[in-house]
Amino acid sequence: MAEVTIDKRIGDLKKLFNRVNDVLYSEEEITDPSAALTASYIPVGEDGVNFDAGDPDITKYKLTDGQIWTAIADAGDADISFQVPSVADYIADLFQNKTSAKAASMTLEGKTYTGNGYDFSPKKVTGSMILRSQDKKTVIILTNIEGYATPKLDDTGKPLYFNFSVSPLNNSEGVAIYYMFEDGAATEP
Questions:
Q1: How far is the C-alpha of 58 from the C-alpha of 166, rounded, in Å?
Q2: Which residues of the chain form beta strands (DSSP E)?
Q3: CB count, 10 Å around CB of 189?
Q4: Which of 25, 68, 134, 161 could form a disulfide with 83 if both were Cys (CB 3.0 to 4.6 A apart)?
Q5: Element spanning 92, H or E
Q6: Distance between CA 39 and CA 161 in Å, rounded?
Q7: Residue 7 CB burial class (10 angstroms; 0-12, 13-18, ≥19)
Q8: pLDDT value of position 141
Q9: What is the pLDDT of residues 7-24, one digit of tens each?
């Protein structure tokens, strides 16, 4: 009688991404995580991360007698979004179309305010994103993204934030996501 061989124990599989702590954005696609990269931290609200890669749409091929002979799956629609509570120039320039070449200023009750003008037409944001876990032991890299952001202000007590919705894409090497671990342990393909 054949015996079952155990090749992985539960403890061998304890590689977790426990909560998003850091979010970085780069204008560049990431094809090699070990290559030099310029990235900026993006502030994200504590409850402002939604990460759902999308359930596959499965079509089953059935015979007249009800037998399923095969199933075909198409990738689902990803729902990945971040609430970015900042209107700093870098963030506003990233998410909206600037309409003025130079900053404008005004005085209100003796205080001077300076800022830039933007329109509300959608602006496509492309690049890549790096997410680091709260315990800083795990990193997720979205190698190539397209996204759009919408400014939002509501009565929940949150400051104005941009709701940045992202679609992950494969990079030029065919990779959409990397899971990286602090200990550097490689996983077999």
A1: 23
A2: 20-26, 40-41, 49-52, 57-62, 68-74, 79-84, 97-98, 104-108, 111-115, 118-119, 125-133, 138-152, 161-169, 177-181
A3: 3
A4: 161
A5: helix 89-95
A6: 21
A7: exposed
A8: 96
A9: 988 888 888 888 899 999
Cα 126–Cα 89–Cα 161 angle in degrees, nearest 5: 75
Q: What is the pLDDT of residue 130?
A: 96
CA distance 139 to 133: 6
Whole-number Cα distances in Å, 125 to 12, 27, 29, 150, 179? 38, 8, 12, 12, 23
pLDDT of residue 185: 46
pLDDT in tens, 30-50: 999 999 999 999 999 887 788
Q: How far is residue 151 from each of residues 93, 123, 155, measured CA to CA in Å?
A: 12, 12, 14
Highest mean predicted confidence (pLDDT) among 24-33, 55-64, 74-83: 24-33
* Nearest CA among 105, 126, 135 for reference residue 117: 105
* Residue 100 φ then ψ, to 5°: -120, 140
